[in-house]
Amino acid sequence: MFLRVLGDAFARQKRRKAIVFVAVALGTAAASAPADIALDVGDRMSRELKAFGANLVVVPRGASQPVRVGGTDFSALSIPAYLRAEDVLRVQDNFWKNNILAFAPLLDAPAEIAAAGGAEERRAILRGAWFDRPFRLDEPTAASGPEPTTGLRRMQPYWQVEGRWPDERGAADEALVGARLAASLGLRPGSRLEARVSAGSAARLLVAGILTTGGEEDEMVLAPLEAVQRAAGLEGRLSRVLVSALTTPESAVYERKGLDPRSLSPAEFESWSCTPFVSSIAFEIEEAWPGVEARVVRRVADAEGAVLDRASGLMTLVAVMGLFGAALTVASALTAGVLERRVEIGLLKSLGARNATVIALFLAEAAVLGIAGGLAGSAAGAWLARVVSASIFGTPVAIRPASVPLAVACALAITLLGALLPVRRIAGLRPAEVLREAI
Fold first, then answer.
1. Cα angle at 182 between 179 and 188, to 5 degrees?
2. pLDDT at residue 133 greater than cutoff 70
3. Are 192 and 336 in the same domain?
């Protein structure tokens, strides 16, 4: 009997039920689309933000520490410390190797820069680096794919290069010249320059491109690492290694814990070390490469965390507003339906139906609409999430199967929340008064 009455209820008030169905579907889509994006957007946005600089710098332990004697700073007289170039792969060969997106070893040497055959010289930094270097952590096998590459070109895709990036595998040593330095020396792509390092010999380089970054690189010459090592007489040495890692924003608590991980309790240390915080990745690099210090570039790391937190907050706000608006629409439609069916409800009560039975019938009707609207809303939300993700990040999000039951549960929550006020009205209806008004 219950199912028969429920079936008859769907044959009437089709317009009201269509309004409830559409409201639930739209509310579910508005909530599920940001949720699907949020599950994928953290890594995507973090990868996009990595294009604006490294968030870790690996330097020799104790490097650039001030040397003071009797209040006088003797740091300029200290012997510079270097890293061993043969150990550079240790920055990725550790627990967090899948989170290390790119790295670039560097060697800086002061040099006198002049155009080939030119009289004017400028003192500038000659920086050796990897530009787009293939590397492999393990021995190649038959199932191994192509070698991954790393270097400044991967870490800084938004650098503007007039000309082309240097070919590190070519016969001639090629370089990038900063825009301001090139303008002062009259260099352009195809020119040749000579870089004379005071402690070593001269390097003759072909200008492959003119580099514009808006930073200190505009006053530098960037050349292949091995060419600068030979010119400076520092074969097998590095000044530092820039690292771009995929991280999770640190809370204030974990920022405090990350300062001294060895002081944590075993449970706290396990939680901290198994979460890709920038400080825990720095700790693992130091463990894998003895004698180095992995310094967090807080300006970059904090900016990434702030952007990701704001993006997550915005998506949460959109989802909550969508749910709230859908719940109001459902409540309005269901309340109007109860008012139109007052006589039917009064008749059921006069025939002996209890409040619980009538309310169960009403909630079952709302639940069916909620499930149907949830399925439609989850499909619409998945489509919307893919469209938004493709327009922003260039690739659609991967829709997870678990999002469908979550969307249906969200739709039921919307429907039941909207049914609270109508249920109270049903419980308060008196059969005698309703039927007397109907006569």
1. 100
2. yes
3. no
- Same domain for 32 and 64: no
Question: Same domain for 325 and 403?
Answer: yes
Q: Grade residue 172 by pLDDT with cuts at 50, 70 and 90.
A: confident
Rounded CA gap, 335 and 418, in Å? 9
Closest CA to 301 of 317, 278, 324, 328: 278
pTM of structure: 0.61
Q: Considering 239, 265, 296, which residue would you say is the last residue of a domain?
A: 296
In angstroms, the CA 75 to CA 68 distance is 7
Question: Which pair of tokens denotes residue 84?
Answer: 């061993």
Q: pLDDT of 280-339, one tens digit each?
A: 888 899 988 988 998 887 655 555 555 556 666 677 777 777 777 777 777 777 777 666
153/175 Cα distance (integer angstroms): 13
Token pair of 350, please? 């006069």
Same domain, 66 and 160: yes
Q: For residues 424 and 362, give the distance between their C-alpha atoms in angstroms, rounded to a whole number.
A: 11
Number of domain units in the chain? 2
Host domain of residue 14: 2-47+304-438
Instruction: For residues 146 and 254, state if they share a domain.
Output: yes
Contact residues for 353 (Cβ-Cβ < 8 A; gap 6+)? none
- The conformation of residue 394, written as its DSSP 8-state character, comes to S
